[in-house]
Design a protein that fits this description.
Length: about 350
């Protein structure tokens, strides 16, 4: 029986932190293991050039690392097609054709586009910012629509911030279907409601740009050191002072990573029966126990680069076959030669 197709991807921006793990990757792995979808998971390396075009070596290095990270947390190339976006040129061709039918107005009013410009303005002086506001940056959602629609994916698990991009993908699909002929299904976003709530060391949302993240590539010692820096209840100076677990990063992470037993520790914290030192020690142990198998799997993969190459080669081949089939329909609909 034909399974509905699911596609998702991430930009290779650097190592994965726990926020991205819980907000996105974990969901991919769970869905993969349920086996109800035909899964395609890729690394959106072309997308990274929209802002980091001056650092191509870094993009290539991060892309490779992200593939290893995907597999180390449980994406299985036997069950999921894992590939690099730039290995499947059909994404670029569809992006080009979509760019012809996408009104610029749709792109200019994207909240993500406005946010990116605001970030660039903070980073670069006024004279320099213009060179970063590229054609490709404006077209970011068009490439994303091509990523999704070239596989006729029906379901796209993403973080909340990506909802507007999914809306554009649906609009482009509708517009194409209306102008030429009915080729694309309208993809649905699968948004995990608890996404983005994971606090970082300083209690702000965990994010690489805040420097408050725990990475799945951190060593056991680094995890211990980071947990020790976490903000707890400001008024709890001694073990016997009552704590407020709702405001404590250590307690919040404990709730996520020890869902069965965290209540006991919360209650003891509230009543002044346990101190932050004990809480931190236990949380570091819990996190390291969770990360240990991921570390082992990563080491295995990193000592076997030929295997990773083979996964990427096979993944690209499978992805290409599906994408090419769609492109043949698209070319025919637009009176292009096959
Ligand atoms: N824009 C996504 C992000 O930054 C990454 C991405 C690119 C993507 N193409 C995609 C996600 C297609 C889902 C489907 O997270």
């Amino acid at each position: 029986m034909h399974k509905p197709r699911l596609l998702s991807g991430m930009q290779p921006t650097g190592p994965i932190h726990l926020g991205r793990l819980e907000g996105a990757l974990r969901q991919w792995v769970d869905i993969q293991n349920e086996g109800t979808y035909e899964m395609f998971c890729f690394v959106a390396d072309w997308h990274s050039y929209t802002t980091r075009f001056k650092n191509p070596e870094e993009i290539a290095k991060n892309a490779r690392m992200l593939v290893v990270d995907y597999m180390s947390v449980g994406l299985d190339p036997e069950k999921t097609t894992i590939f690099l976006q730039s290995d499947v040129k059909q994404h670029a061709e569809l992006h080009l054709l979509f760019s012809m039918i996408t009104p610029v107005g749709w792109l200019e009013r994207q909240p993500t586009y406005k946010d990116k410009i605001a970030t660039l303005e903070q980073k670069y002086s006024e004279e320099n910012v213009a060179e970063y506001i590229s054609y490709g940056l404006l077209g970011y959602p068009v490439l994303q629509a091509a990523d999704i629609l070239v596989y006729k994916a029906e379901l796209v698990p993403v973080g909340k911030d990506q909802a507007p991009h999914l809306e554009i993908a649906r609009e482009i699909a509708r517009r194409f279907n209306y102008i030429y002929r009915e080729i694309f299904p309208e993809p649905q976003a699968l948004i995990r409601e608890d996404t983005g709530t994971l606090p970082g060391i300083d209690r702000r949302k965990m994010s690489s740009s805040y420097g408050n993240a725990i990475y799945i590539r951190d060593t056991a010692d680094e995890v211990v050191a980071k947990v020790n820096q976490m903000i707890t209840t400001e008024t709890k100076l001694r073990k016997t002072d009552p704590g407020v677990p709702e405001n404590c990063v250590v307690c919040q992470l404990r709730k996520i990573y020890d869902p069965e037993n965290y209540q006991v520790s919360w209650e003891e914290c509230r009543q002044g029966l346990r101190g932050c030192t004990q809480n931190k020690k236990e949380l570091a142990e819990i996190l390291n126990a969770m990360l240990e198998p991921i570390r082992r799997r990563r080491e295995e993969l990193e000592s076997n680069p030929d295997y990773v190459d083979e996964v990427l080669r096979k993944g690209a081949e499978k992805a290409r076959a599906v994408a090419e089939e769609t492109m043949r329909e698209v070319r025919a609909a637009m009176c292009l030669r096959p």
